[in-house]
Amino acid sequence: MSAQKNTTVNRRDFLRYAGLSGTAFVLGISSATATDMATVQTLRSTAPNPGYTFTPYIIIEKSGKITLFNSKPEIGQGTFQSIPVLIAEELELAPDQYTVLQTGGESTFGDAQFSGGSFSVRSSYNDMRKAGAAAKEMLITAAGKQWGVPASECYAEKATVVHKPSGKRIGYGELAEAASRLEVPKSPVLKDPKDFKLIGKSVKRQDVPLKVSGKAVFGIDADVPGMVYASVEHCPVFGATLKTYDKTATMKIAGVEQVLEVERVFGVYKSTGVAVIARNYWAALKGRKALNVAWDYQGKEAFNSAGYSQSLRDLAKKEGVLDAGAGDFDKAFGEAGKKIEAFYETPFVAHSPMEAMNCTAHWKADNTLEIWTSTQVPSDILRDLPPLFGLKASDVTLHTAFSGGGFGRRLAIDFIIEAVNLTKAIKKPVKLIWTREDDTQLGPFRPQTFSAMKGGISADGKLVAFQHKVISPTIMSFLNPANDKTKLDQTMTEGISHQAYEIPNTKNLFVYADIHVPMFWWRSVTSSTLAFSHECFLDELAHAAGKDPMAFRLGMLTKDSDTKRVLQKLKEVSNWDTPLPKGKGRGVAQWDFFAGLGGQVIEVSRRSDNSVKIDKVYAVIDLGTVVNPDNVKAQVEGAVVMGITAAIKNGITFAGGKTEQSNFHDNPVLRINEMPAIEVHILAEGGKNIKGVGEPGLPPVAPALANAIFAATGIRVRKMPFDIDNLNA
């Protein structure tokens, strides 16, 4: 697999890493023979001609072959195209003139090798362009010297340098060696966006032909000589401990080699499982099923969803800690002409990426480690994993493969630690594969989040008081043992105090709810739950004020803002002011948070059997710069699919301390016959404020759908998931 390299972080770290992204742009140039990059070593060993490294991201061989590196793992979101194309734009390369390799956490590429938080393009946009522009200037300078003409008379196009007066041309490959000896420009001149040939265009992705042909290498495709397979029996009850196990029946199964204990570590959560090692995966899985394991449930078998949900409702009576506020909410609410209160509930949700968790690891005789896996965080693996095993980062070689989905789950490395523990114990390459049931039942999950809402309407129909109280466990309590549970965790109140609505009196609060079930970031993080309660309650307030929901929102946006532009665009493209036929309804919602800003209008039709059909989704996403509009549309469409799934398909529930759902039959995703038409509109300002793409399309989906249901049926939905086939007033 290493020759086919086409192939636990918290959200606050994303911001820190983004700020350090410039360190990945190393202002220096060296022959590839002097580099310490494992990926480059692999490339050089297979390349027929010597290559020269222009910054870490560009290799130009004498043959003319050009390789660009993608430092943001490809998890389906398109970074395999969007990151290298930033370099290619400035380096004047056509899409078919370069190949792409994935980085593997090497220090040469810096600490920002991760895909998460919708930061990939935002954190790379300027640095990758500078890398391409610097290399281009060096090649032009080298050509001018070779021809004995001023560099100002030369320009680059399609991997060649052209002397404008004479028309002479020379390829980058012929110039690479001479250019490699030049000093890298510290402030290369970047192109004017009006001259872009690739950025902002629907450029084809190099990974798509690989994926549709079956040639793409995912983590689960790893094949290492001499490897064995592992399947781990974990305790189904969270918080339990291993008592004993009997491997007698397991060892009788053909292909099984041994059985051993292995620890799973996820932040502060630790558990011991029983691993079956076999010569093939089927034997490992069959052997696992034959195990006789006894667990000590530690009383955790009493945990269940009904009881936990009631505990959150009870906690809503607490005042909580302040997130943010303005004016005097208590006074304004007390004096309001109309007082509205509502309670919203959202469930635990599994990540459910199509490629289950897997990792192949080889602890070698010289105490070095090689890893093949699908991950969102190569940098984290090389930073956090070596110290756990007494290794240095230089002792570890990581092969980052394509990922069959991430959605935040592959920001964690618990399954990778499991695989490394196993290979270290048996001194053989081990391929660990979680089953779909493991992925569904073992977490980590998106937290269950409840919201207690209050709003006050004045006599003239204005919103004068607003409160959003969040009742939830915290993800940080699992990631950080020193986390103070008595203080505000802003990752769990994400966005509720930062919407652009101009409300004079607000008081937003947080109440901590304890839990022992592991939780983690899910696509769009806490915004996927809080936008539902926030934007649905605004609809309730609009109805109480006797106002149109769109007009009500725009009426609270007197100043120019991105939110106002998004809503105005939604109003335009959805023909909001044109009445719908009887039995149909529209709902609107928007959300502005750390990842970006998006909004939707959803249209539904009421059926005679007390159900509704989702007819159409109008989506608007606000971006500063569009690298590839096709990628943007695909990301928004995918977010809508996840958003509808979370809204109308059952979430994760617990009984007897165990996860009740196990696979797609009882933890389903939206099917193709349920898919509505989606119309995506992109707002861009030519690079003024670059915003994220991957996550902003998700938070507004559930509230826009719930608001549309109310418009069509008069039924107010306050609890996810909701059954659109059997709505109850």
Structural class designation: alpha+beta
Describe the global form.
globular
Strand residue percentage:
15-25%
Spatial ordering of strands, largest sheet = 11-12-9-19-16-17-18
Mean pLDDT: 92
Helix content: 25-40%
Number of helices: 19
> Number of DSSP strands?
28
Question: Could you provide a short overview of the structure?
Answer:
This protein is of the alpha+beta class.
Task: Please name the defining characteristics of this protein.
single chain, 729 residues, 5-stranded mixed β-sheet, 19 helices, 28 strands, 24% strand
Describe this entry's structure for a reader:
The strands form 7 sheets. The protein has a 7-stranded mixed β-sheet, sandwiched between helices. A 5-stranded mixed β-sheet has the order 1-2-3-4-5. Strands 14-22-21-20-15 form a 5-stranded mixed β-sheet, with helices on both faces. It has 19 helices and 28 strands. It is globular, with a radius of gyration of 27 Å. It is 29% helix and 24% strand. By secondary structure, it is α+β, with helices and mostly antiparallel strands.
